[in-house]
Write the structure tokens for this entry.
Amino acid sequence: MSKTKKPAKPARNLRDFLDAVAEWDPGSILRVKEPIALDYDMTAMAMELERRGQSPVLWFEKVGNSPFPVVANVFGNRKRYAFALGVEEAELFDAWGRVGDKLYTPELVKKGPILDNVLTGADVDLNRLPIPRHFAEDGGPYITNGIVVAKDPDTGVRNASFHRMQLKGPNILGTSLHSRRHLWTYARRAQELGQNLPVAVLIGCHPLLSFGSGLWKGPISTDEYEVAGGFFGEPLKIAMGPMGKVEIPIECEIALEGTIIVGERFPEGPFAEFTGYASERSTEHALKIDSILYRNNAIFQDIVPGISDEHTMLLAIPQEARLLGTLRQHNPNVTAVAYPKSGTCRLHVYVSVRDPAPGQVRNIGAVTLGDDLSVKLVVIVDDDVDVTSDFDVMWAMATRMQADTDMDVLRNAMGAVLDPSNNQGTTAKLIIDATRKTKPFPARHTLPEDAVARVQAMIAKYKPSP
Ligand SMILES: Cc1cc2nc3c(=O)[nH]c(=O)nc-3n(C[C@H](O)[C@H](O)[C@H](O)COP(=O)(O)O)c2cc1C
């Protein structure tokens, strides 16, 4: 199924979205009916399918002793991002920018499905939830699909971001704010005021809510529930839970209310990170949980962590959409960007540009490094090179660049804390100009299109083995 189309019904929650996906492309949801172990096996299944080039949503109906089914790998395939936005895959980045620029004030309501079941006091036991262990080296079970929502202690503006959360006790989670972005800033501001930071944790939302809140990277002054409204094209409906501090979108499957204890450190990790390593690096924040809310027949959503397609695609797609927009503001001839998986979808970027003006390639490289602190390598290529292909980019480097004149190194810059090769948070940054420098430049060899079509028909008849 290659065509995407608008979901037939207005899906505003995870379950309706999954129904719409099942209707659109039935093969892209794998319902596992037989019992599966809580620890490791769900991740093992996702990784095994990934190895075989398959990326269905995995819907585990019976997980360990849990009454909650678990859904994983919702974000493991680019075509589902486009489907959620109701566009073709080729239009994904433009659509992302378009809806991300719109804001809708959320609507506060008194009732909603998330209030179906509310556990407080002695009933709060996180062990009720199917929180799995994912990889052998992990320090414990982890919530990998938790969107942490908090309010700026100074302004009240809401921020939402994904954070790994380790199960440490019936009402304690350990987390890390290593991205050093807005939640980290909020925690610091709360500490300066001598306060802790109230949060809501959302588990299992419509993908547009995840895109517009958890993955959206804009100014700290923008309320991310308002951005999520932009992604939906209407105000997000929110309600207060029993703690009454941070509003919760009423269509979420599961939500937790709690507090980040800002002044204390709580051992957390190791955790299988997007780098492909069991990461020991953590800001060691503790989250004390005061209430658990879930709708009737709630689905627990998991994100396959580590260097899985799901985890790395969640990092790549929002960054690609954002970087393309930023670069095009001053360089309209930038044709494409890609965060390749070989660079963990975070540390390396490929950018293609049409007929760059003298010096423009360096400017593009500098803007890319400035836009995203995690990036260590930017390779800029001509627009005939496919930035989604490592082979094509390496081929351009092999045939269009010279190491003495086409590389620039910036030393001792701020980098990704999770990069195991960094030096106390600093890394070197490399810009490689792999565009053609001389004119005329040899033409790439090609085949006539009609010859390709003729042999494709022949090959289909002979069906050679792979
Ligand atoms: C699945 C997933 C897990 C993540 N886990 C963490 C984490 O544990 N700690 C962290 O600081 N950032 C984590 N991130 C990155 C932040 O969520 C991301 O940078 C976010 O956009 C920051 O939001 P903000 O710009 O609103 O601050 C994770 C991202 C994803 C997609």
Observations:
- The chain has a mean pLDDT of 95.
